[in-house]
Amino acid sequence: MKPELRHLRYLLAVAEHANFTRAAEELRISQPTLSQQVRQLEKALGVQLLDRTGRSVRLTDAGSAYVHHARRALRDLAAGERAVLDVHDLSRGHLRLAVTPTFTAYLTGPLVAGFYDRHPGITLDVREMTQDRMEAELLDDRLDLGVAFSGAHLPGVEADTLCAESLSLVVGAGDPEADRPGPLPVTDLRERHLALLSEDFATRRHIDDHFTAHGVRPRIAIEANSVNALIEIVARTSLATVLPDAVTRDHPHLAPVPLAPAIPSRTVTLLRRESAYRSAAVRAFTELAGQWARSLD
């Protein structure tokens, strides 16, 4: 017997869950059937793929090696199916896009709206996630494109530069600093009460690094895991925050206040898997993202 695609999917499910019962539930087959199919695969290959002696099921060394190739084979087959179904006139299709959280406040809307206006037949799956998870999902072929920052990427992930993102202090339009003629010394923030993104955000770590470098420990009154929440808080209180300048463009009740020294800018990039098939939808979105970035200059 030669291994079939179902054998690969069954083995991967067991490896992911480390449990036959949970894997069977996900696959919607009975546990005895799943066990039988995996044993068929082991017999066909002539090796033991799973260690069933403990409380949980673990891959053997041979199993780990085989799963690596099985996962890649299924991923490539899925990419091949999408390539066959790709419609070059963009009358239909699908695009899987991810963005890091701060981009949802100013970038996701214009890009997605512009893409939908041009190509209403393309369905979009837009998700917000951390950059680490985004790169992992690109490599696993669970995403087509990701919008994130430049830097050290996982092997196999490539990046195209879109634009530079600058960060400023952001205050309500009625704040005394809103009409300040020049930059605000960053040391003045020692006495300012701030509302900032929570510490699990890369943007927050970038901000903290700048403050620390200049000996500033601001009074943090509120931490939030939502950019939109910070926007609403700053608009309704005397608190200030630090966000990308671009966030204020569509919010007339907010005002950016540049800092001195300025927080270092970051480079926004469009990420993809190096060897991934580039569908017509991917190519169209990449072109649109480049046009949007150039419009900011």
From TrEMBL:
<protein>
    <submittedName>
        <fullName>Putative HTH-type transcriptional regulator CynR</fullName>
    </submittedName>
</protein>
<dbReference type="InterPro" id="IPR050950">
    <property type="entry name" value="HTH-type_LysR_regulators"/>
</dbReference>
<dbReference type="GO" id="GO:0003677">
    <property type="term" value="F:DNA binding"/>
</dbReference>
<dbReference type="InterPro" id="IPR005119">
    <property type="entry name" value="LysR_subst-bd"/>
</dbReference>
<dbReference type="GO" id="GO:0005829">
    <property type="term" value="C:cytosol"/>
</dbReference>
<dbReference type="GO" id="GO:0003700">
    <property type="term" value="F:DNA-binding transcription factor activity"/>
</dbReference>
<dbReference type="InterPro" id="IPR000847">
    <property type="entry name" value="LysR_HTH_N"/>
</dbReference>
<comment type="similarity">
    <text>Belongs to the LysR transcriptional regulatory family.</text>
</comment>
<feature type="domain" description="HTH lysR-type">
    <location>
        <begin position="3"/>
        <end position="60"/>
    </location>
</feature>
<dbReference type="InterPro" id="IPR036390">
    <property type="entry name" value="WH_DNA-bd_sf"/>
</dbReference>
<keyword id="KW-0238">DNA-binding</keyword>
<keyword id="KW-0805">Transcription regulation</keyword>
<dbReference type="Pfam" id="PF03466">
    <property type="entry name" value="LysR_substrate"/>
</dbReference>
<keyword id="KW-0804">Transcription</keyword>
<dbReference type="Pfam" id="PF00126">
    <property type="entry name" value="HTH_1"/>
</dbReference>
<dbReference type="InterPro" id="IPR036388">
    <property type="entry name" value="WH-like_DNA-bd_sf"/>
</dbReference>
